[in-house]
């Protein structure tokens, strides 16, 4: 069986998504090789629905970090919800960062920037955030997850929150780890396949 060359040529073209996330009309340019290139994945939907429903509070002045941003649906939506704050989107994949930058321009979002970073390793240690969000990749390994969570705590302002959407199979791991690292854990929403969890950086925790 042969594959039509025209079909392959069509796959080389960018995909385009138009949608509404947390009440914000958004447009995204994506490509094959990125996570969920044809539609917004269900984990992202579940996480952003909690902001839309008020289950997770966000202030207009909040500084936000999207950790593992892909082509940017979570971080760019939060940038819209917090227009007076600054939002940073990071990913270890240079293609993801390239497309996130395209989507920042496409949606005319002035308070967002994207940079290449393995976890939070390349972020200035002095930079602090009110909210760190992540659609956590399931296969990065627990060692990297521990590093990411420890770095996230260091980059949160006192009272800042980390918000994670994870496959439900990792729910207990994140519950134990967030309690250990942050001293608290809140299961915000349990879906069929994904869980949204939140932890708060207490002021008595080291930075």
Can you tell me about this structure?
There is one protein chain. This protein starts with a helix and ends in a 7-residue tail after the last strand. By secondary structure, the protein is α/β, with parallel strands linked by helices. The mean pLDDT is 94. It is globular, with a radius of gyration of 17 Å. It has helices at 5-11, 42-52, 73-81, 94-106, 142-155, 171-182; strands at 15-21, 24-30, 64-67, 87-91, 112-116, 129-135, 156-167, 186-190, 194-200. The strands form 2 sheets. The protein has a 7-stranded mixed beta sheet, with helices on both faces. It has a two-stranded antiparallel sheet with strand order 1-2.
What is the strand and helix layout of this fold?
Blueprint: H1 5-11, E1 15-21, E2 24-30, H2 42-52, E3 64-67, H3 73-81, E4 87-91, H4 94-106, E5 112-116, E6 129-135, H5 142-155, E7 156-167, H6 171-182, E8 186-190, E9 194-200
Parallel strand pairs: 3-4, 3-6, 4-5, 6-7
Antiparallel strand pairs: 1-2, 7-9, 8-9
Helix pairs in contact: 5-6
């Amino acid at each position: 069986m042969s594959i039509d060359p025209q079909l392959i040529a069509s796959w080389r073209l960018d995909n385009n998504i138009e949608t509404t996330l947390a009440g914000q009309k958004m447009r995204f340019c994506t490509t094959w090789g990125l996570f969920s290139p044809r539609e917004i994945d269900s984990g992202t939907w579940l996480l952003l629905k909690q902001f839309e429903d008020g289950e997770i509070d966000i202030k207009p002045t909040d500084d936000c970090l999207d950790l593992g941003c892909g082509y940017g649906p979570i971080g760019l939506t939060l940038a819209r919800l917090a227009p007076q704050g600054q939002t940073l989107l990071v990913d270890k994949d240079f293609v993801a960062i390239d497309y996130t930058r395209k989507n920042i321009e496409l949606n005319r979002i002035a308070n967002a920037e994207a940079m290449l970073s393995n976890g939070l390793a390349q972020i200035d240690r002095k930079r602090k955030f009110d909210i760190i969000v992540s659609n956590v990749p399931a296969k990065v390994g627990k060692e990297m997850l521990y590093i990411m969570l420890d770095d996230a705590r260091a980059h949160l302002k006192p009272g800042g929150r980390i918000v994670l959407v994870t496959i439900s199979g990792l729910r207990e791991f994140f519950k134990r780890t967030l309690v250990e690292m942050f001293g608290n854990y809140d299961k915000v929403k349990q879906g069929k396949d994904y869980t949204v969890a939140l932890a708060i950086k207490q002021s008595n925790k080291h930075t």
